[in-house]
Hints:
With 921 residues, this protein is an alpha+beta fold. The longest helix has 66 residues, at 5-70. Ligand C2E is lined by residues 684, 700-701, 712-714, 717, 730, 733, 757, 759, 789, 819-820, 876-879, 897-899, 904.
Amino acid sequence: MQIPSLWRARIHSTIATLLAIVLVGIFLFKQHSIQTQLLGEQQEIALDTAYRAIVETTRRDIEARFRFQIMRPEVLELVAIAGDATEQELPVLRGKLYRLLEPVYREMEEIGLLQFQFHLPDDRVLLRFHHPQRSGDPLFSLRPSIRIVHTEQRPVYGLETGSTTSGFRYIFPLQRNNKHLGSVELSMPFSYLQTQMNRLLGRGEFALVFDRQRVLATVDSINRVYYSESTIHPGFLVENRILTAEHQLFSQSDVVFRLQQQLRENTKVQRLMPHHKAFVISAKEADQHYMISFLPVQGLSGESIAYVIRFKPSNAPAHLFNTLLSNLAVATALILLLGVLYFYNLRQRLQLQEDICRRQVTESELSLYANIFEGSGEAIMVTDHKNCITAINPAFSHLTGYTEKEVIGSNPSLLASGHTPAETYQAMWQALGEHDFWQGELWDRRKDGSLYPKWVTISAMRSQGEISHYIASFTNISDRKAAEDKIERLAHHDPLTGLLNRYSLELRLEQSILSAQREQLLAAVVFIDLDRFKTINDSLGHQVGDKLLIEVAKRLKQRTRDSDIVSRQGGDEFVVVLTGLRSTNDIPHVINAMSVALSQAYKIDQYSLSCTPSMGVAIFPTDGMDMETLLKNADTAMYHAKEKGRNNVQYFTAAMTQTAIERLAIEQDLRHAIQNDEFELYYQPQVCAHSQQILGVEALIRWHHPQQGLVPPLRFIPVAEESGLIETIGAWVLEEACRQLSDWRDEGICNIHIAVNLSSHQLRSASIVTQVAECMQRYAIKAGELELEITESVAMDNPEHCISQLMALRNLGVSLAIDDFGTGYSSLAYLKRLPIDILKLDRSFVHDIETDPNDAAISEATISMAHALGLKVVAEGVETQGQAYFLASIHDCDLLQGYLFGKPEPANIIVEQLKKHLHSH
Ligand SMILES: Nc1nc2c(ncn2[C@@H]2O[C@@H]3COP(=O)(O)O[C@H]4[C@@H](O)[C@H](n5cnc6c(=O)[nH]c(N)nc65)O[C@@H]4COP(=O)(O)O[C@H]3[C@H]2O)c(=O)[nH]1
C-alpha cells in the first residue's frame, strides 16, 4: 500500500523533530552536568585553597610568635631548670614562667588560641595557660604528637583529635645548645579556621566530622564521650557539642542541621565519604540552594582523618538548572519550528516527486491510449463540438476506405448511405444530448459505394459542461447479422424443407387466429400425414425419404398462398394453415388441390414413388377457438382419415372427439378384461380351395364386455395396440389357441392347423420367439400346426428386424402368413426376402373379383406371383360360390376362408363342424 505524501511527510518530520529534540536535550544535559561539575570543582578548589592558606598562614604566624616571643633565653632558662627540678620546686618555676609569658598568651588568646602549654621531656605538663591549676598530668598517651616532638625533636603540626577538643596543634621542641629541654604546644580550635575561611570564601557554615576508625584508634575509651555519631554518615563522628562548646566557639544553624540530615540520604555522599576524597554536591533546604563541599583533611601522621564540610548558600546550581530549562525550551521551540519547516519542505518535495511520477504515468498512459487508438480493431472517429472529424484510426480507413486526409474536417454524414431511418438519427442526437451516450445500428456506405451495417457507440465528451468532442467507435456487423439471420432461420424453420417449424407454426397460428377474430374471417388447420412414408424411408433409405419430404414441401408451397402457413412438424407430418378465408366453401377446393398434388408420383433418383396424404381438417372458429384445440382436432381428424384408409381427407366433427373419448374408455376397460376373463377365441375354418376340406382354422378374438356385450376386435385391437396392452392380450390368444389345438387333438381332431394373428408390437418384442417356443412345447404343437399371421404393413415396418424375428419363428416350425395382402405398399423384391409361407389375399379384392376386372387382375397377379415365390395363397372373405369357383378354378388359389365356409364361431360350435367335416372326408 502506498502512503500518501502528506502522511509520509508528517511521519518523517515528526521522527526527525523528536530525534533532534532528544539529541539537543542530551547535549544540553551534558553541558549542564559539565557546568555543574565545574561549579563543584571551583568550590572544591576554593575550599581546599582557602583551607591550606589558612592552615599555612596560621602555622607561619604561630611559628613566628614561637621564635620571637617564646624562644627567649629567660624562657629557655626556666624550662631547663624545670627539667631538672623536683616536684616541690616546679610550682615556683611554673609561676615565673606564667608571669613571663602571660602577655604573650593574652595576645594569642585574642587571635583564638585555645591551648598554650609546656611539656617536659618526661611527659609531664610544665604549664597550661588555659588551665593553670591543672598540670603535671602525662599526655603522651593522649597526644602522640608530643611524643613525636620529644623523640624526633622537630616541630609537628596538624589536626589532631583530643580528650577535650580536637584542633590544629603546633608543637615546637625547646632546645638550647643542642639540648632538648621540652616542648611547647599551641592549639587553635577549628572555629578559628572557620572564621578565617569565611573571611576568604564569603558567607558559609562548616562542619567537621572525624573518621570513626581514626578516633577510636587515637582516643581512649574514657575520652570517647566527647564524640558522637555524625548525622551525615555513620562512619564519621562529630565532637560532642555540649562538651566541646566551651572550646569550639562555632555554631550551626538549623538549616545546616537539616541539610546534614538530608546528606544521610544522599547516595553520593554515602558512597564517597569513606574514600576520603574531595567532592561537592548541591542540595536545597528551605527554598535555598546550597553548595556543600567536602574536603578531607590530614592528621599529624599525614593521613586523612576528617572532613571539613562547607555549606555555602548558592543559587548557581538553580541558575544552571534554570538555564538548562530555558535552553531546552528555546531549543525545543527552534527544533519544532525547524520540524514544521522541514515538514512543509518535505511535503513539497514529495508532492513534486508524486507529480513527476503521476506525469510519467499519465505520459505512459497517453502513449498506451495512443497505441490502443492506433491499433484498435474497432474503427474510431473523433469529432469536435461542431461535429467535424478531427481524428480517425487505421481501422476506420480500413473499414470505410477513406484516408485521414479525405475525412479530417468533414462531417461524418459523408459516410451515410441513406438506408438508416431518419428516426434512428433523431434518437441518436437526443440520447447524446441527454445522456452523452448512444449505441445502435447504422447503415453506411464505403468509399467504393458498398453498403454495410455497423454497430456504433458514441460518447460525448464535455469540458466545463459544454460538449467538446464526440468519440465514435464502430464495427462492421455484416457477419453478425448474417449469423443472426441464420440462427433466426434455424430457430424458426425446418432445416430440411425450409418450411416453418413447430415453434413458428404455433406463433404464426396464434397471430392468424387473432387477426381472423378481428376481421371475422375463417382459418383452416390441415394436418397432413404421408401414407407409407416410413416404409419408403426404411426400405429405400433416408436420403430418398429426405428428398421426398423436400418435394412434398415444395408442392404444398405451390398449392398455398404466401399468407398461408406451411410447416413441418417432424417426420412425415405437415401442418398447413389456410388463412383469410371468407367461407367454408373455399376450403375443399384448396385441400383437394393439395391432395391431388401430393398424390402425384414422385421422381426421386431412379424411383417413381407413390405417397398419398392422409389429411385432417379443423376450422376456426367452429372446431376450436384457440391454437391448441385447433391443432388437436385437426390431428384427430387426420387420425380418422388414416383409419378410413389411405389418401383420405377428414373434416373434424364432434363425433371424432366422441370416438377419442370412447377409445379412452375402451383402454381403461381393457386393463381389467384379462383378469376378469372377458376374452374368448372364435374360430373360422380355412378350407382347401379344390376339395373344400377344412385344413385349419383362424383364431379371432372376441371381447364379452360386461356392459357393452360382444365387442368386435376392430374396435379394441387398435386401442390395445396403441396402448401396448396388445402384448398381454396377444400372449393370452397364443396360449389359448395352442391349448385349444391340444384339446382338439385329444378329442381326435388331428391334421388341422390353427392361425393366430400377431400384432406389430408382438413381432417387435424380444421375447416373442421364446414365448412361441415355450407354448409349442407346453402343448406339444408340431411343425406346421401353428400359423402366425402378420399384416402386410407390419411386415414392412422395420423390415430388417422383422426378417430376423420371422426367421427365428420359422425355425421353430411355425408357418408364417402375410395378412391383408394387397392393401399395403409391398415391394416385391422385399417380399422375396421374407421367410413366409402363405399370402392372404385381402377380402377387398375378393369381394368384386367376379365383377371388377381390376380386382380380378390384381388377384390373379398376386396368386401367380405368390406361387412363383413358392407361397400358398389364402383368399379371405369368400362369401359366394362364384367367388370360390373363380378363385379356385380360374386363379388356382390354394385355400379359401369366408362366411361361405363358416363364420368365426366359439370353440364348442366349431368343434362340431370340425368333427362333422372330418367324418365326411
Ligand atoms: N365380410 C366378411 N368378413 C369375413 C368373412 N370371412 C371372415 N371375415 C372377417 O374377416 C376378418 C378376418 O380376420 P383378419 O383379416 O385377420 O382381421 C382381423 C384381425 O386383423 C384382427 N384380429 C382378430 N383377432 C385377433 C387377434 O387375436 N389378434 C390380433 N392381433 N388381431 C386380431 O381383427 C380383424 C377383424 O377380425 P374379425 O372382426 O373377427 O373379422 C374377421 C372375420 O370375421 C366374409 O366372408 N365376409
